[in-house]
Design brief:
Strand order of the largest sheet: 1-2
Low-confidence stretches: none
Number of strands: 2
Strand content: under 5%
Number of domains: 2
Number of helices: 4
Mean pLDDT: 86
Distance between the termini: 54 Å
Oligomer: single chain
Largest sheet: 2 strands, antiparallel
Structural class: mainly alpha
């Protein structure tokens, strides 16, 4: 049986939000629902425990902390070695922007972030906008 998990699409600006969903702390026995649907795949292996330690450490640090990128890479390495969940959802969207009043929107040439404003990228987009001249 499959399920749709839009929360697992992946965070753009903060990997912790996606990674934390699959930590062992949310592991529940079969027949019991995990809060928020977290770790619904019931990933429970020695590597999931190592993954959880890394992600918990990330959650207690600011995004720009030294070593954060290395921790993200280490967590994803553990994830990809076991692939407890494979996101296969993809959608093509047209996201128009108007540069009449504001410039600095993500473009094909400057794709600094995912342009959809309904995900967590919105605040980074807003901080990149400049008044049009």
């Amino acid at each position: 049986m499959g399920s749709m998990d839009w929360h697992s699409c992946g965070s753009i600006n903060e990997p912790y939000a996606s990674l934390n969903r699959f930590t062992a702390k949310y592991l529940k026995p079969v027949g019991t629902t995990s809060p928020g649907g977290n770790n619904y795949v019931r990933w429970d292996t020695p590597k999931s425990k190592e993954f959880t330690k890394i992600v918990d450490k990330m959650g207690a640090m600011p995004l720009n902390a030294p070593g954060m990128v290395d921790m993200v890479v280490d967590a994803y390495r553990l994830w990809y070695e076991e692939l407890p969940f494979i996101p296969i959802t993809q959608a093509r969207k047209l996201i128009p922007f108007d540069t009449t009043y504001w410039t600095g929107w993500p473009t094909a040439e400057n794709n600094y972030n995912h342009p959809a404003t309904w995900w967590q990228s919105t605040h980074q987009i807003i901080h990149n906008l400049k008044p049009a001249k």
